[in-house]
Input
Amino acid sequence: MIERLSPRVRKWVLNGIIVFAIMLLVFGFIRGKSLENEQDTGTNDGKANVEEGFSYSDINNPDSIGNDSNSLQPQTNRRKDMAMDSYEDDPNITEVSGEREVNVLADFFSESEINRAKEVSKQFVKSHYQFNGDQPNEHIEKASQFVTDDLKAKMTTNLIVRPTNDNYRRRIVGLEVYESYNPTSKEFLNLIARVKGEVLNIEGEITKREMVEYDLKLVPFEDTFRINEYTYKSLNYKEQGKE
Output
């Protein structure tokens, strides 16, 4: 039908259709924006109502806060309470001024007693660790001077020490003595000694560097202390090539 119209009229019709289409697009865009704004407004109003409802409940029902202390208690306080509860049944941990702490040797022994025990421990470990393959039993005989009679009998009974080519001598490079963690007994004094040492072969070459830990239990003896029980273990070591 448009083809029957004159060129001028046909141009007007086409221009009108284009303008109408543009108007529809603009109207649709404006309408869409309006709907989005209405949805955002409704969402914010809903959040405000929820918050206002919670606050209103708190104001009008102050007793409601605290009725369930576990559910409203901050998480950090819960963890603190759990940590404190773990100590409730430990009789070896005392409470001083509202704070819990572990025991120390000074709770059971005087400073002079602890110092004497440390000196005895150093002498024992120096004697026991250092070893000479030319006189393989000598280190046991020297160490036995610092132990009780019962322990001495155990150390020297059926004593057979055989050096090897790679483990012919041992010497101390460093030695430190520490208090044991959380001591609990007044019957004996517990100390830890750590030795840094070197192992040498029969030719005098270093074959290994090691750290050995001694766990020592000392008992009072006259005006000093004696080793009543001991164990030792290697903590680590580093193999060495020939130097």
Observations:
- The CA atoms of residues 133 and 163 lie 5 Å apart.
- The chain has six helices and seven strands.
